[in-house]
Backbone:
């Protein structure tokens, strides 16, 4: 049997401290629409300052500064090797920065938290390759993802409360898989598996969603639906989307960050960064 690593959502919950120790860091964003229990007083859900990551002397991230507003949908673009995935690794605790600060809300220091603590504090990550349980139904996959404190079999045996069931049904509608809820996840198309995995994040109601190349391998129709989905999630959640597909980026983002050699090269609307000479030189004009 193929072994599957235990996803973070099945491990014990650990409550992260949330004392009110506000700072005067810059704030951009949309006010306090999301962030239940999270201190986002200045409207910033994620603050990265002077972040560096070295791999054997090579700087994958180099004094990077990035601020994501509450409810914002931010796209991160940049050439291969720019540091986009490493950036997500730092936010989720997979890679520790050698230097710099990383805050979730005002008070949670991500550099001191484990990957599990970070996931449970409300940061959900979707990797490029879907990791759904193929033998279980679509509904069961969502059910498992929702229950953060039980083993697989204990979760499936435990009765769902009406509220839990409603939330799964609502997510099924959101990801357009209501009609496939009883099908084994292994029978879904590549795109549908991607949507299921997004659903598995949504049932946990994360405040910040990190999505690495979400439309890679999708059909045009699936890509279009993903754009609609992300736009509908923004506001309720904050999203950070890494993508090479500029058509897709143009259809969802009002704010784009261009990474190059581990630092922020430019920020602004897609149009503005595409017109930036430095960006054309290092990336778009290649
Ligand atoms: N664990 C590692 N050990 C050594 N070097 C690494 C490691 N992870 C990433 N790198 C290097 O760091 C740089 C940034 O990699 P990263 O995967 O973050 O780029 P990316 O922007 O996501 O690129 P792509 O668009 O191709 O996915 C690359 O030069 C990569 O080879
Ligand atoms: Mg990458």
Residues:
């Amino acid at each position: 049997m193929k072994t599957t690593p235990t996803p973070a959502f099945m491990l014990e919950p650990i409550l992260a401290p949330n004392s009110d120790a506000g700072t005067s860091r810059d704030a951009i964003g949309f006010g306090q629409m999301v962030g239940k229990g999270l201190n986002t007083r200045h409207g910033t859900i994620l603050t990265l300052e002077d972040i560096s990551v070295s791999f054997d002397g090579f700087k994958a991230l180099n004094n990077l500064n990035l601020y994501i507003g509450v409810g914002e949908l931010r796209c991160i673009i940049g050439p291969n090797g720019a540091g986009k995935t490493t950036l997500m690794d730092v936010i989720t605790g997979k890679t520790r920065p050698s230097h710099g600060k990383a805050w979730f809300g005002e008070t949670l220091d991500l550099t001191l938290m484990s990957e599990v603590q970070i996931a449970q504090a409300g940061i959900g990550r979707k990797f490029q390759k879907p990791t759904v349980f193929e033998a279980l139904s679509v509904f069961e996959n969502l059910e498992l993802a929702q229950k953060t404190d039980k083993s697989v079999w204990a979760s499936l045996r435990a009765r769902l409360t009406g509220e839990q069931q409603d939330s799964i049904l609502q997510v099924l509608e959101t990801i357009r898989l209501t009609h496939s809820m009883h099908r084994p996840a292994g029978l879904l198309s590549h795109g549908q598996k991607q949507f299921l995995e997004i659903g598995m994040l949504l049932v946990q109601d994360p405040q910040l969603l990190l999505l690495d190349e979400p439309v890679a391998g999708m059909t045009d129709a699936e890509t279009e639906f993903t754009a609609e989905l992300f736009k509908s999630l923004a506001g309720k959640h904050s999203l950070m989307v890494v993508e090479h597909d500029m058509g897709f980026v143009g259809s969802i983002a009002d704010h784009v960050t261009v990474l190059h050699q581990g630092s922020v090269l430019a920020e602004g609307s897609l149009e503005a960064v595409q017109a930036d000479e430095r960006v054309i030189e290092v990336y778009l004009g290649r």
Notes: Residues 55, 60, 78, 80-86 surround adenosine-5'-triphosphate (ligand 1) (CB under 6 Å). Residues 203 and 215 are 21 Å apart (CA to CA).
